[in-house]
Amino acid sequence: METQEFSDTFSLFHNLNTETLEWVLSMTENESYSANEVIISEDNWGKAIYLIVSGWVKLENIYHHQESITVEVTGKGGLVGEAGILDSVNTNSRITCISDVELLSISAQRFLQILYRDTQIQNRLLKMMVKRVAEYQKYCQFHRQTPKVRLTTILISLADRYGKATEKGIKLFNFGRKDLADLAQLSLEELDYIVEKLETKGLLVVESETNSLFLPNIKQLHHIIGKLGNE
C-alpha cells in the first residue's frame, strides 16, 4: 500500500507527514483471512493490532457452550485489537471474519513504539477510545427502543461509517441474519419481520447475487428513528 492510500484509508494516520507514514508502513505486515476465520481468539489478545484494508470482521462475545453474540462489525478503514495492547481485555471475546479480509498487522511492540514516538497518533487513539466508550454507553440503553428503531439505527450507523453511494442507494455488505439480529438486539423472527416491512416500503433492498444491501431512502430511515424513537 502506498503512503497516500494508507493515509486516506486509516483515520488514525490521516495527513501525517510522509516520513512518519513511511516509518509506520515499514512496521506493517500484509495478512489475508477467509470468511469465518478467527483473527484474534479468546486467548490471543494483545499481540498485534489489525488495520482492515478490505472486507468485514466482527467482535463476538462468547458465552456458555461456545455460543456467540455479535456486538460490533468493522470494515475497511477500521482497526481492531488495540484494546488488548493498551490493557488486559476480557478473554470471552474474539475477532472473526465475516467475509474474506485483507489487512495490515502491527505487532504490539511496534505499535507501542509508534505511540511513544508520535503524540499526534496518541491523541487520535485516545479520542477514538473515548468515542467508543460513549457509543458503548448509548448501546447499553439500546434495548429501551422499539425493535424497528433498533434495526434502523444499526443500518444508519453502518451506512454512515461504511456505506457507498450508488444509483440504487447506500450500498452495504449483506451481513448475515444472525449478525444483524445480534447488533440490533433482536430475535431472528423479529429481524425477518422488520426486514420484510422495510423491503415492502422500498426502504431496504437485499441483492443476494452481489451479497449487498441497499438503503434507497436514508432520509426516510432517519424519519423512522425520529418518529418511533419519541413514542
UniProtKB/TrEMBL annotation:
GO terms for cellular component: cytosol
UniProt xrefs under InterPro entries: cNMP-bd_dom, cNMP-bd_dom_sf, Env_Response_Regulators, RmlC-like_jellyroll, WH-like_DNA-bd_sf, WH_DNA-bd_sf
GO molecular function annotation: DNA-binding transcription factor activity
Signal peptide range in chain numbering: none
Domain Cyclic nucleotide-binding: 12-132
Record-given protein name: Cyclic nucleotide-binding domain-containing protein
Record lineage: Bacteria, Bacillati, Cyanobacteriota, Cyanophyceae, Oscillatoriophycideae
